[in-house]
Design a protein that fits this description.
Order of helices and strands: HEHHEEHHEHHEEH
CATH class of the largest domain: Mainly Alpha
Number of strands: 6
Largest sheet: 3 strands, antiparallel
CATH topology of the largest domain: Arc Repressor Mutant, subunit A
CATH superfamily of the largest domain: Winged helix-like DNA-binding domain superfamily/Winged helix DNA-binding domain
Radius of gyration: 21 Å
Number of domains: 2
Strand content: 5-15%
């Protein structure tokens, strides 16, 4: 049987080479060990990197682990790298993304009921960016597609899992305004993005 030290060292190498979040179950299969043991080894590595104050940290994303740079070194990394322009999400994309994140799994009709406007193109754009994906079909009439967020969403916004989303109250209590007298002030749904 392979020693714990050897497995942890191999996990480090695998994360380095893999680049993307490394799934605990996949890593466990390589060594024929229980995924819970593999998860514990990853958590130990994560704690070791944190305690030693290294420039590289290990981030968990939905039972997967990935090397990332330490937040406190961002200034130096920015000086080293030529800034790359990233296209920001539009206001409508952020609104739809927030609705999907908090109400998932959710149908397009439910999203439109909250926003009060069609969102076909916005959902397509979010799918192309891999922030939102089809997660199934509703049992309602017509079996509409259900949407949910992805691991790319978690990674982009710096969340470990959906429980990390800020609490904004109950979205089910939101209703679509029917007329000017029932007007609901839905000016903006915002999500604070981590500094890039």
């Amino acid at each position: 049987m392979t020693s714990k030290k050897t497995i942890k060292a191999a996990f480090e190498s695998m994360m380095f080479v893999w680049g993307q979040p490394l799934d605990v179950k996949e890593a466990a299969e390589i060594f024929n060990i229980n995924w819970k043991d593999a998860y514990e080894y990853f958590k130990e590595l994560q704690a070791e990197y944190e305690q030693e104050g290294r420039g590289i940290r290990i981030r968990e994303i939905n039972k997967s682990f990935q090397f990332v740079t330490a937040e406190e070194n961002i200034e130096y990394i920015e000086r080293l790298c030529t800034p790359v322009k990233h296209k920001r999400l539009s206001q409508s994309a952020l609104e739809v993304l927030a609705i999907v994140a908090y109400k998932q799994p959710v149908t397009k009709g439910e999203i439109e009921a909250v926003r009060g406007i069609k969102c076909d193109r916005v959902i397509e754009g979010l799918q192309k960016k891999e922030l939102v994906a089809e997660v199934g079909r509703s049992t309602a009439i017509g079996r509409p597609i259900l949407y949910g967020t992805t691991d790319v969403f978690l990674k982009y916004f710096g969340f470990e899992n959906l429980k990390d989303l800020p609490d904004i109250g109950n979205l089910d209590s939101l209703t679509v305004p029917e007329g000017p007298e029932d007007s609901l002030d839905l000016q903006q749904i915002t999500i604070e993005l981590p500094e890039e």
